[in-house]
Amino acid sequence: MKQRVIFFLTIALLTANSGSSLDFSGILDSTVALRAGAGEAAAFSFGIEEYANIRMQARLREQAVFYGAFNVIAAAGDYAADAAMLAAFTDAATPPGINSTAYVYGENYIAGIELERLHFRLNGEIADFDGGLMRIPFGYGQIWGPSDFLNPKNPLKPDARPRAILGGAVSFYPSDFFKLLGFGAAPQDPFSPNEGFIAGLSADYHWDKMSLQGLYSFELPKPGSQWGIYHAGISVKADLEAGLVMDALYTYNHEANTKIDGLSFSIGADYSFFNGSLIVLAEYLYNGETSSTALGFGGGFSNNHYLYTGFTWRFNDFTNAGLALISGFDDVSFTPVVSVHHELFQGATLMVSAQLPLDRDLFSGDGNRGELGPLPPGSPIGRYFDCSVKLRLRF
To answer: Can you spell out the DSSP letters for 173-224?
Structure first.
């Protein structure tokens, strides 16, 4: 399988360079990271990663477009250990005889190729159809994204590209301001023939300074259950003196005895000062225990109340610095994130980022460990400090 992917990628790159209709673009990230470990993790460790996201697009006359993307990775140190841990976890949940590990182990690095996107679009006079391995985004939330239940976000990993889903979508445009979307997605368990299949509808309407989206979906019952899962949500954004956004999704899961805890709700605003030099962004999240953003139900958060506060200062067109604070109020834990971006020349950016998890146990040693702290509850390993330096090349 890996040989086929490499062959297909090589043919695609050669075709792109031969002047055909296949366009080729992407990014190359060269990253070095330093981590101070907590719990059973090493006191200090480092990681090196070479990562490329290679994208392809080909237009077939005016009726169809092909899209493809691959992630190509070589890693050592912390990055390799994290990848190996993820692969081991994935393999543990895979049926016998199926090997899902995507990495090849060398003498001082591991390497892998991952298919990220592979889909097409058919353009019609009254509707467009998209099908394949792709992203179907929902909601206008910038940080938490409760409505984006097929591709959940995590502000602790701002550079992570959203995962794709295997499915299809039909888009209708009754007017220039109105869009209707019908979509379907394969079950979360790829070996399931029908249980867990998701189907739904969304509608978007845009005014001059405001946009509104409604969303509904139904997930067929999973094995051993007679009840499906329902999602219904609304998302609003407005461009007034400040940029305002509200995003809410209610998930009804009969097996989880859902009540108000099926609600995931975020509201936020951004505003710029000093002629756009300073940008301030704040967004609050209520995370119900069985909602779309909850741990074990599609998301990754275990507390109820969170707040993201971010400040970005633009020194000039080439350099900006950011300071963000991600707060969990239930267990009083925080993760400050500091970042600096500097454009070396067109297509090349140097990026420095650091995270410093904090909680009550760090200062008092009273055992009150927080989700956003150095050593989250239930985890044997964590981190007191995490810093990365990345060179990003766009081609």
So the answer is: EEETTEEEEEEEE--SSTT-SSTT-EEEEEEEEE-SSEEEEEEEEEEPPPTT
In the predicted structure, residue 223 carries a pLDDT above the cut 60 = yes
Beta partners for 218? Answer: 199, 230
Three-class SS state of 26:
strand
What mean pLDDT is predicted for residues 239-243? 91
Least confident range from 1-15, 105-119, 234-248, 290-304: namely 1-15
**What pLDDT, in 10s, does the model give residues 355-375?**
999 999 888 888 889 999 999
Residue pair 142/281 in contact by the 8 Å Cβ criterion: yes
CA torsion angle 284 288 294 296 (round to 10): 170
Tokens encoding 75: 């890693």
User: Residues in the chain, how many?
Assistant: 395
Helix (H, G, I), strand (E, B) or coil at 146: coil
Q: Please report the beta strands in the chain, taking only residues with DSSP state E, as ranges in sequence order.
A: 22-39, 44-60, 64-77, 103-105, 110-123, 127-134, 165-175, 178-185, 198-206, 210-219, 229-239, 243-253, 263-273, 278-287, 305-314, 319-328, 333-345, 348-355, 358-359, 381-394
